């Protein structure tokens, strides 16, 4: 009943927002929007046919209260797939558990978990001396906690394993949280705007932590947000047994309800989308025919609303928002820019290490092996962790309460996704340019010089794109923080008067022009000027290496984007090294699967003391050694510095300038660029952040949601994708 009521109201908002989103999409397609062109190439299918990670981990099974060794695989879709053991995976047997981690939090402390459990059912706390709901046999737990769905308990043997698994789990959560495709120019904005309108109708302004996962997961969270308090007050007092047992029962009840809500929500939302899609051809035909009249009608409505709202909005902005914009911006800029500087540093270090290894170990013959690893650097959770951690220090302090920001996690996650994208764009551009050069090279020395020259070209492009992406992120974050605050402040005096403007909209255009949306656009305009000015001033002052808007790189590489349209590069196929012996027996395809992160542990594992444990064979391949200069200790900055200086002398023949600059000279011909190195920033191996970027660090986590249970009926494909059903029928989409 509750699901039907919530979804019925949501679908009404969705239908309204669908027409507006369709109109905006067609208008954008016709009018276009000239923003700065990205300098780096964008990879279309980053991780096809790759496994992010696989390895053994101990899992706590709630049905028999025992810990078992499981083989965990993280395929390219970032679902957590748990098998009985590695042999079961290689034989393509069905997995025991599939977890879509959207909405989850990754915890590394049992105390932290128990605190969340105690808060989920107020008034029920274990007495001293009673066993808690969970005991971990090692000091290194990993717990996936969700406010509504079931929880997952894991542990490992060492702190190093825990750090790696934590990075892997957090990457899964981060990816699954971002489940609404940005490629959809109509459905995605219609959905997010409908969710926002629904919550605002219930006086819930500001950011929402559970806007994570795919559309069905988000709507399930929307229903549970209203349903769970009612369930808790009805069922909570009736639970029997000791406190830990009541907590365990409550978690199971919440999960069972969440599964039912998920099923019902999925069916009702799919039906609403189908109805809108059926109407789309008719709506789009009207838009294209009457585009000018619709725009004129909307501008007339906006002028009337502006005359009514703007004076009040400007007073509100001047008194309650404007004084705090610079403080919010500074709080956002510092950790974000440090994170992007760390992305630059990690990319530089990895390419420099590769160059060193190529010099020491055989040139072109080894290049494919190194490039295969480098090409997936952005999707290596452990190597990218230092970048993501920089966002941990993001704190809005008093501003968070003032502007009703429930959590900064939404901004942390968005910045981290931008970091991963920028890293992948830099790597893809580097490998594309290097691949183009390989046919012209003569021996190891030429290869070494080309790698250095291309690296410095890519770093220059990265600095420009990084500035563009960060400025856009800052503007969007400032709007996300201030607009809900303004809408809440203005609601008592403005919201009730909006109905009188409805008569200004022609009935034929009522599907594309909404009074509520136009009102919000007017409120946005009232604060947009101040936000744009604040970001512009930060760029003019060169704060955190932001470039001014007037600094535009026009056609610096006119043929580069044509290269990006070619067939994806397969380094292993094009430049094979020593042929590897073909594995025999079942599971050959899986043994040959390329893996981004190396296996953590190689030996057979057992828990340190018996607690219902079971030690299972743990086959795996050893973590490959890092190839370095024999004379240089691992991680030595002096060794990297020495090769950097030698490369600069040999390949450039000139002193490299210490500061980067963006030039406006006419683009050189491809032949000239191939022989004359570009002016580039001096990048020291130990610290290559872009000029003006400051350093300091932090870490980030993000929520996650749905999964399937222990019973899996149908056989699983080599890398499980799509939709899986548990024994209880709940669907979990990867």
């Amino acid at each position: 009943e509750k699901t039907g009521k919530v979804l019925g109201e949501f679908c009404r908002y969705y239908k309204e927002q669908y027409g507006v989103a369709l109109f905006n999409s067609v208008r954008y397609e016709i009018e276009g929007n000239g923003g700065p062109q990205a300098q780096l190439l964008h990879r279309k299918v980053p991780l096809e046919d790759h496994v992010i990670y696989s390895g053994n981990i101990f899992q706590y099974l709630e049905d028999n209260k025992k810990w078992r060794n499981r083989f965990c695989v993280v395929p390219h879709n970032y679902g957590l797939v748990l098998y009985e053991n590695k042999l079961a995976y290689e034989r393509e047997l069905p997995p025991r558990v599939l977890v879509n981690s959207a909405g989850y939090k990754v915890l590394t402390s049992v105390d932290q978990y128990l605190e969340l459990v105690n808060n989920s059912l107020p008034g029920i706390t274990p007495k001293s001396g009673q066993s808690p709901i969970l005991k971990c046999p090692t000091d290194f737990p990993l717990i996936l906690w969700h406010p509504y769905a079931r929880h997952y308990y894991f542990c490992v043997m060492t702190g190093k394993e825990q750090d790696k698994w934590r990075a892997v789990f957090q990457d899964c959560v981060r990816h699954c949280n971002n489940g609404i495709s940005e490629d959809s120019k109509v459905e995605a904005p219609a959905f997010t705007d409908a969710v926002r309108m629904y919550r605002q109708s219930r006086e819930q302004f500001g950011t929402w932590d559970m806007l994570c996962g795919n559309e069905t997961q988000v709507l399930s969270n929307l229903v549970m947000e209203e349903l769970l308090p009612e369930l808790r007050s009805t069922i909570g007092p009736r639970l029997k047994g000791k406190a830990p047992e009541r907590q365990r029962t409550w978690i199971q009840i919440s999960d069972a309800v969440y599964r039912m809500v998920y099923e019902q929500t999925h069916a009702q939302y799919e039906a609403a989308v189908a109805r809108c899609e059926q109407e789309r051809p008719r709506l789009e035909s009207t838009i294209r025919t009457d585009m000018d009249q619709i725009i004129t009608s909307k501008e007339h409505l906006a002028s009337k609303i502006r005359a009514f709202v703007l004076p009040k909005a400007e007073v509100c902005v001047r008194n309650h928002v404007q004084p705090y914009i610079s403080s919010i911006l500074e709080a956002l800029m510092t950790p974000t820019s440090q994170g992007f500087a760390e992305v630059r540093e990690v990319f530089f270090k990895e390419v420099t290490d590769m160059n060193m290894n190529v010099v020491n170990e055989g040139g072109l013959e080894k290049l494919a092996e190194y490039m295969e690893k480098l090409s997936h650097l952005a999707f290596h959770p452990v190597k990218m962790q230092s970048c993501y951690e920089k966002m941990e220090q993001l704190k809005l302090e008093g501003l968070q309460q003032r502007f009703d920001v429930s959590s900064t996690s939404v901004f942390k996650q968005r910045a981290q996704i931008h970091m991963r994208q920028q890293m992948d764009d830099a790597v893809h551009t580097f490998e594309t340019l290097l691949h183009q050069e390989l046919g012209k090279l003569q021996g190891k020395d030429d290869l070494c010089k080309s790698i250095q020259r291309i690296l410095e070209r890519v770093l220059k492009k990265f600095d420009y794109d990084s500035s563009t992406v960060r400025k856009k992120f800052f503007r969007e974050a400032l709007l996300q923080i201030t607009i809900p605050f303004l809408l809440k402040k203005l609601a008592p005096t403005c919201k009730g008067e909006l109905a009188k403007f409805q008569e200004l909209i022609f009935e034929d255009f009522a599907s594309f022009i909404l009074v509520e949306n136009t009102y919000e656009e007017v409120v946005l305009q009232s604060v947009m000027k101040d936000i744009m000015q604040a970001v512009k001033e930060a760029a003019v002052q060169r704060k955190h290496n932001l470039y001014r808007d007037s600094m535009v790189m026009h056609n610096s590489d006119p043929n580069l984007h044509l290269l990006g349209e070619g067939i994806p590069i397969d380094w292993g196929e094009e430049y094979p090294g020593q042929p590897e012996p073909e594995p025999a027996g079942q599971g050959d395809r899986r043994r040959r699967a390329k893996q981004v992160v190396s296996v953590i542990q190689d030996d057979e594992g057992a828990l340190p003391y018996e607690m219902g444990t079971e030690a299972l064979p743990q086959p795996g391949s050893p973590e490959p050694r890092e190839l370095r200069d024999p004379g240089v200790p691992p991680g030595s900055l002096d060794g990297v510095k020495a090769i950097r200086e030698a490369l600069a002398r040999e390949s450039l023949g000139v002193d490299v300038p210490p500061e980067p600059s963006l030039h406006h000279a006419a683009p050189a011909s491809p032949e000239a660029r191939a022989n004359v190195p570009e002016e580039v920033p001096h990048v020291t191996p130990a610290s290559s952040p872009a000029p003006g970027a400051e350093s300091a660090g932090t870490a980030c986590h993000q929520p996650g949601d749905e999964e399937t249970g222990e019973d899996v009926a149908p056989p699983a494909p080599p890398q499980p994708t799509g939709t899986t059903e548990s024994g209880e029928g709940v669907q979990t989409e990867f």
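The CA atoms of residues 92 and 713 lie 13 Å apart. Residues 291-361 form the longest helix (71 residues).
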